[in-house]
Design brief:
- This protein has one domain.
- It is about 0% helix and about 50% strand.
- It has strands spanning about 1-10, 15-20, 25-30, 40-45, 55-60, 65-75, 80-85, 95-100.
- Strands 1-2-3-4-5-6-7-8 form an eight-stranded antiparallel beta barrel.
- Strand 7 (about 80-85) and strand 8 (about 95-100) form a beta hairpin.
- About 20% of the residues are buried.
- This is DUF736 domain-containing protein.
- It holds the Pfam family DUF736.
- InterPro entries: DUF736.
- It comes from Caulobacter endophyticus.
Length: about 110
Amino acid sequence: MTTIGHFRREGDGFTGKIATLAIEAVVTLTPAEKFSAKAPDFIAYAGAGASARECGAAWRVNDASGAVLSLKLDDPTWPEPVSGRIMAAEDGALPLVWFRRADPPPATAPAPG
């Protein structure tokens, strides 16, 4: 797991900066309208003002991991989505920890019989 950014609470949402070898973006998380239990709690926007573009979503985390939000960002120019968790922090700068989703193990063919 690698820290690729930091977020701060702003009103009822979050604002942060993500920086990797290939990406540098300001991201704002704004509350989403919940239309189902699995719908995201926040919509992610890259950029600011009128040029901001939707780039992902975040869900509240209710487990003992210390995470505040689970985040998924995507863009057509990226080879795969960015998944991570915004972790709790006492100083107000909430780190975004990136992790690579593991592919499920390949299905094994049944033994000939």
